[in-house]
Each structure stands twice: as structure tokens, then as C-alpha cells.
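C-alpha cells
===========
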Amino acid sequence: MLKDMLWLIRKTILTSLKDYKNLLLVIALPIVGILLSTLIYKGSGETSVNIGIVNHDIEQKVTQDTIDFVAQLEHTEASVIRESEADDLVVSGELDAVLIIPEGFAKGVIQGTPEPVRIESIKGAQVTGYVKSYLNAYVQNISSMGVIAGGDAAAFNELYSGYRSSTFQLSMTTVADQSANHDMTNRTIGYLVVFMLFSAVNLSALTIRDRENRTYYRLLSSPITARSYVFSNAIVNIVLMMIQIAATLFVMTRFFHIEPGIPLWQMFLILSLFALVAVSLSQVIVAFSDSTMMANGIQTMVIMPTSLLAGCVFPLTVMPEAIQRIADFLPQYWLLDTFGRLQQGSGLNEVILNLAILLAFALALTLIATYKFARNRDTQSYI
């Protein structure tokens, strides 16, 4: 049996190498996925927010200190503008948002009931949320002094002066933001998963061509069994998948300098486990297909919808929660969830369940494919 399987492996490799485009697609498509991920998330790290400040409460120390506070925020560029030019600057994109401080703001702070500061932007909470969170906390702090002073300006000024001249120091350490790298890694892996599934079906479809030209039936009339035939094709498929994985990880880290936040050997092993799932699924699709055209149709109907629902193409969080629950039944989701957990600091021992689920998918699909191939010993012709 071993001799027969080695002969089948050699036959499959030679057949695959006859068309160099197959190998080119195995290597080139994942690189295209890396490039696409880089373009999507380029500049998604730290960026500056340009804020225009309209001050209607002029010549007030509390108000000016508030403006200075906003200007000193990290990743924020602030400038005082006139209200008449605010709309044009926001619409033209020169400003991301406009901060409007109402008249009587300082007086309200002293009394403990400050007038609300408006933030206007056409870019929504993605831009205004950062400034608003810091500004609200600052205004709440200084207005609490007005509450303590009971609206007495002299008492407030004394408390406020002490607050401004406090000698306590805050030590700060800058931590590199790896979120963009992690996002690019996850999206790259998502695209790689899709390409692995399509590449696996493309190679497994060699068995359909063998059935169409009746080579498959002639092989089964010899001592070669259906199990040997399926496993030999799967072995070659898995080897090509591992080459695809290694090439993708190498290009991603060496040429695009994407830091995945996970040791590469762990990524390779986990993706190799998913390669078993991809090859098993491809064998099932081929086993239930009567022609190459039918296999192409089934793979499109199966791979693309499940990959979309699992979060391979875009983040799963953008979908309704009811739809997200469907992902629990898809192997692609468990692969991406594994990488997400590892990026957050989990160890391999904490993702054993995920890996076991992937292995269960691979075993179940392999059994289905083997059984179906064994039932296809008939000698009917393709029409």
C-alpha cells in the first residue's frame, strides 16, 4: 500500500507541476493579500487631530487655561479660529473638528455649573471622542472646585490657584501602538485562509479530471484503493499549503515588516493545522462534484459566504450579533479567534480548545470525503 501511495504522490506532483500557473497562484495570491491589507490599514496607527477653537468667552483665565489644555493633548493640533470660517475649514478637510466655547463658560465653572462646550465634526465620534473624553474630565475637575467654593469667586480662585501650582509629578512611559500591525496581520491571515481554501480545491480538482478521463476508475480496478488515492492527493495538497504558508509569513515579516505579535513558528504550526481543514473540505467538495464546473460552483457557494461570515475579509464585529453567532460553526472563525487570543497574550495552552475544534473539523471532513470516494466505484461515463 505504501508503494502505491508513493507512486500516486509522485503522479500528483508531476501533474501539478505541468502547469506552472498553479504554483504561481499558490505563492502570488497571498502576497496580493498582504499588499491589500497594508493599503487598507496604512496610516491607521497614530495620527494627529486638527482642532479649531472658537472662543466666545474671551479674556477669562479659566477659559484660556481650558484652551491651553486642549492644545497640549497628544496627537492634537489646536488653533483659535473665527466662527464664520469654521464650516468652510471643516468641509474642506483642513480641520477635523471645531470646539466652540460659549460665552459665560468661566462664570459657569466658578458657580459649579459650566455651560456645555460644543464639538462639531463631519467625521463623527471617531474624531471627537478622543478630545471629548479628556475635555469632559478636565471641565468636571475644575467645576467641582466651583461646587466646593459655593459659587464664591474668591474661594474658587484660591482653590484654582492651588490646583494650577500643584507640585505633584506624573511619570509617563510611551508604549508602542501595535494595533495597526495586529489588524494587518489578522486581515492578511484572513485573505490567506480564503486563498488556501481555493488553492486546495484547485489541486483536489485533479481527481475530477482523472474521473472525467476515466483514469480514476482504471486506478481503482488495480490494487490501489480509494483511501490511498484520496490520501495521496491530500498529502501533496498539504505540502503545497505549507509552502504557501511559509512564503506568506516570510514576505509579511521580511518585506512588509509587519509584526504579528505571535512567534512565527506558532503561526506556521497553527496555519498548518488549518491546512488539514482546507484540504479535507476540498476533498469533500470534489467527492460530491460530478464535473469540474460543478466543483467550481460549489467552492464559490461554500468558501466565500463562510469566509465572509467568519471575519476573513472584514472584522466580525461590524456584523449584527445574531450573524456573529453563525461564525461559531465555521473553522475559519476558530483559526482567527486563535490568533486574536495569542496576540492578546494568551499562551498555547489557553487555545487548546480552538486547536481541538480545528482538528475535529479536519477529521470529520476527511471521513466524509473518504466514504464518498469509496462509493464512487461505478463506471458511469460523464456526459
Notes: The two ends are 33 Å apart (CA to CA).
